[in-house]
UniProtKB/TrEMBL annotation:
UniProtKB keywords: Signal
Record lineage: Bacteria, Bacillati, Actinomycetota, Actinomycetes, Kitasatosporales
Pfam families assigned: DUF5819
Protein name, entry field: Secreted protein
Signal peptide, first to last residue: 1-22
Amino acid sequence: MVLCLVTTLVHVVLVFLHVAPANTVSKRYSPTVNAWVYPYFEQNWRLFAPDPDSVNRQILARTAHTGSDGSVKVSAWFDLTAVDNSAVEHNPFPSHTAQNLLRRAWTTYTETHGGDDKSRTERALMIQKYLRNIAADRFDSHNSGPFDFIQLRVVTHPIPAPGSSPRTPAEVRLLPWWKVTTHEK
């Protein structure tokens, strides 16, 4: 009982420091606050002022497995976005996870990594692992067989403005191969 009360109090204080305007206390304890808040308790105001996407993204994954003879077997690309879309389509009560988990993980990845895929902060490294684990879990649940590495390819199609005829070509971003350990699959 006491442990629950203390945990609740600590949680409320840390989330308050996260959403409060910058002050001496929140600046001093910023690393601790961010470690507690991200990625599970992130606060934003998108519910009241949504920022709709101006692009359609297709996130694909493929895996590689090194056999006992040293040969490397690379899988075909698997469309992670199509899995999310099929879970939402024709579902009157789609889950928040099906709608947003992969999309938000990718958006946060691009915010923390820019265009060079280098993790320069602890948060960037955490988001990279988060995205890798989402992709590995989704790939593993739809395909059988072991894998040691996973790679993502993101195809971004800009949504043209109403009345505009020229279509902008799709942008393709290929991420590096990420090592996946057994306990992460």
